[in-house]
Amino acid sequence: KPHIRLQIQISLFGDDDRLIVAKDVTRLYQLEQMRRDFVGNVSHEMRTPLTVISGYLETLVDHADELPPKWRRAIETMAAQASRMEALITDLILLSRIETGEHTVDDSLTDVDEMLHQICHDARALSGDKGHTIDVNILDNRLLRGDESQLRSAFSNLVFNAVKYTPAGGRITVTWRTDRDGAHLSVKDTGIGIDPIHIPRLTERFYRADPSRHKDTGGTGLGLAIVKHVLLNHDGNLEIRSRIGEGSEFTCHFPRERLVERVPEAPVK
Ligand code: ADP
């Protein structure tokens, strides 16, 4: 028998009076679960045929110079769109897995220092001849308890977004620091910025601040939704600050209980 889910709201009046409202949200919860499963299953089923299509298209692209110019363009466009669709399906599968909640979180120890250096290395390749300056500051060398692959997806989405939404020559600064409140990973850029009216909705699936400003960034529109759910799975949250034309800063906050001291390596005998 399924568990019953209740949503409880407590309002305080004066010193002693309380109004307690309990709402049965079991059905809503089940529907949400069905939606997630459906999206996950459809994405899975679409992946195989799409892989076959992309495979053949890639072969055709490799032999493009043997084709008439009109066909060449068509085939290159199809290959590019197929790879966009693959990225979308990969993100949909990832999101539906992450959304199922804390049960899927693998509590391993993540070396944030090493992970951020790898991600920034890949980000420099993505930046290519746009020549962004990408700096990493590691101000605490403790490890973070959490699912390494989920954390990698979240952090790389933030860093790759910074590259995508920052014009050539801009600066991206990635900082990992801790204080009394916990651990904080911030990704700051000198990019196009975001109008404040969009900020509360940015982590919704497929929400885009201003589609006309960035048609060609190649994103799936799911990146920040993934970041949000990864952080929820790690008892964390995302803070977004931005100014149009000046840049943005995305900060992931984690509770300090997730920090773990590094064990010094045993001396080699
Ligand atoms: P997308 O695939 O469109 O990048 P995301 O979910 O990663 O999807 O981001 C949602 C929207 O948030 C983006 O379409 C963009 O409008 C805005 N955004 C995200 N990161 C940045 C950034 N660093 N600078 C400016 N806008 C950003």
Automatic annotation (TrEMBL):
Enzyme class: transferase
Compartment list: Cell membrane
One Gene Ontology biological process: cellular response to phosphate starvation
Function: Member of the two-component regulatory system PhoR/PhoB involved in the phosphate regulon genes expression. PhoR may function as a membrane-associated protein kinase that phosphorylates PhoB in response to environmental signals.
Protein name: Phosphate regulon sensor protein PhoR
Predominant location: membrane
Organism, as annotated: Marinobacter lutaoensis
Catalytic activity: ATP + protein L-histidine = ADP + protein N-phospho-L-histidine
Coverage span on the entire protein: 171 to 439 of 439
GO CC terms in record: plasma membrane
All copies of domain Histidine kinase, residue ranges: 41-258
Keywords: ATP-binding, Cell membrane, Kinase, Membrane, Nucleotide-binding, Phosphate transport, Phosphoprotein, Transferase, Transmembrane, Transmembrane helix, Transport, Two-component regulatory system
EC numbers, comma separated: 2.7.13.3
Highest taxon listed in the record's lineage: Bacteria
GO molecular function: ATP binding; phosphoprotein phosphatase activity; phosphorelay sensor kinase activity
